[in-house]
Amino acid sequence: MSTISNTVAIPADDTRRNLVVRNPDNSGAQHLGVVGDTYTILLSGADTAGRFTLIDMHVPPGGGPPPHRHDFEESFTLLDGELEATFRGEKRTVRAGETIHIPANAPHQFHNASSKPVRMLCICSPAGQEEFFKELGAVVATRTTPPPRLDAAQEAAFLKKAIELAPKYRTELLREAK
Known about the structure:
By secondary structure, the chain is mostly beta strands. The chain is about 10% helix and about 35% strand. It has a single domain (about 30-140, about 150-175), classed as Jelly Rolls (Sandwich). The protein is built from 2 helices and 12 strands.
């Protein structure tokens, strides 16, 4: 392929990196049960040279993480359903077809307050959040398989593990969204 202009110095193609194609329903994508949701890692930091991660999220009714914040950018595009998103203490409803962006360090959470599952794509930049989910979550069979149900002792152990791991992944769990 020839170049028309050399006015911008773009690095050479890194031929060690490969095209990645994943289908969340029938490929080698990893499905993880986390906080009652199921997160499918479509692209990891290993796939994107650490630039971002792409996660297909299945959030059942009542699902969603606790209030938190982290020092990386996060965007969600809703494919199906609607969520209640809380950003710096302000709640709003986000519907299929809409995208929301959470700036780094801002307190936030999302919650499926509806009676139908939500499906959304999540991009975190730079990558790394997928490693938190891998270390914290339980491997499940499919994109919509719910995580194993936890009894009170298992839930307490999960929360303790999340609190201990969060700083390693530049995340802070909050008591309530601010």
